[in-house]
Design goal:
Blueprint lengths: L1 E9 H6 L2 H21 L2 E6 L7 E6 L2 E6 L7 E10 L3 H9 L2 H5 L2 E7 L7
Antiparallel strand pairs: 1-5, 1-6, 2-5, 3-4
Length: about 120
């Protein structure tokens, strides 16, 4: 089964950390992904730029409308994702528990199964 690991963070708390610390944490996340790649379970993933770079598209009065930034009022913002292929939800959760960002604090990882659509 494929699972997406959605990585959320408090952007203000993240930006308040010293740059050297953020660089070290990013490297730990890269190393974690490389370990998963070596096991053959990492299918892809990337960090995302801050929410200040986002555009949200919604239907307004029957017309798609684009607005700057995210629309949700929340402390945590989606900061990146990984896609893994493992036999069970339990194994995907174990991967998330072992992720360096969880140990940093003020980060969370949502583990969601990917709905498999029929291939054409």
């Amino acid at each position: 089964m494929r699972f997406v690991l959605l990585m959320y963070r408090d952007e203000e708390a993240w930006e308040a950390r010293p740059e050297a610390e953020r660089v070290a944490i990013r490297q730990q996340a890269i190393d974690h992904a490389e370990g998963l790649r070596a096991r053959g379970v990492f299918l892809g993933g990337d960090p995302l730029l801050s929410t200040g770079t986002a555009v949200t598209v919604r239907l307004a009065a029957g017309t798609p409308l684009a607005t700057d930034g995210p629309f949700a009022e929340t402390k945590e913002a989606l900061g990146g994702y990984s896609i893994v292929e493992v036999p069970s939800l339990e194994e995907a959760v174990a991967i998330a528990r072992d992720h360096p960002l969880v140990r940093v604090g003020r980060h969370s990882i949502e583990v969601r199964p990917v709905r498999e659509l029929p291939r054409r």
